[in-house]
Design goal:
By secondary structure, this protein is mainly alpha-helical. It is about 65% helix and about 0% strand.
């Protein structure tokens, strides 16, 4: 499976926020929080995938970036874009049926913990072909 690494995430953060990716990458707490979030979907306790399937991994990636809140600004937008990038890198297509406003609201609900990761993953599955 093709993954998103710290530099990928920070380049997306630079595009979203205008903050320099290199400078963000020199900030230890930012890097640690991003690394933690990016690793979460791929944990295998006892050799068993905790989050099987691309869509669930992508949803967990988005969720954990939101929870870890690594960036000074743009966390929701960056988390959303990292999720889409993970989906695209793994030969699936992000073709949302939800409106832009509905997509933003789902990410906001996930960030506020109004919905859980499985509920968000089910919604993501509807946006992927």
């Amino acid at each position: 499976m093709h993954v998103i690494d710290v530099s990928d995430c920070l380049v997306l953060a630079e595009a979203v926020t205008g903050l320099d990716a290199t400078a963000l990458g020199r900030t230890p707490h930012i890097v640690a929080r991003v690394e933690s979030a990016l690793a979460a979907p791929f944990v295998e306790p006892g050799g068993v995938e905790a989050y099987p399937g691309l869509v669930l991994k992508a949803a967990v990636l988005c969720s954990r970036l939101l929870r870890n809140h690594p960036l000074p600004d743009g966390n929701k937008r960056v988390a959303y874009l990292c999720m889409i990038e993970l989906i695209r890198r793994n030969d699936r297509e992000w073709r949302p049926v939800a409106s832009v406003m509905d997509r933003a609201r789902m990410v906001e609900r996930l960030a506020a913990r109004e919905i859980d990761e499985p509920t968000f993953a089910a919604w993501v599955e509807q946006q992927v072909v």
